[in-house]
UniProtKB/TrEMBL annotation:
It comes from the Bacteria. This is CBS domain-containing protein.
Length: 65
């Protein structure tokens, strides 16, 4: 199975958003957390890009069958 088969778009917040916005997004869906969109140099880094930057190369190259 590939992540793309189960991927869904989830809401994000930025560091400039009020905490209340994050809570309003999380509470109804009982979400354990949100991706915080990092805005740098007039572009937003998606959760996928942020995660990719956090993972090591061996983890990225292993498809996990």
């Amino acid at each position: 199975m590939r992540a793309g088969a189960i991927a869904v778009n989830l809401p994000t917040v930025t560091v400039r958003d009020p905490v209340a916005k994050a809570v309003r997004l999380m509470a109804p869906a009982r979400m354990p957390g949100l991706t915080i969109a990092v805005v740098a140099a007039d572009r937003t880094l998606t959760g996928a890009i942020t995660l990719e930057r956090l993972l090591t190369s061996p983890a990225l190259s292993d498809p996990g069958d």
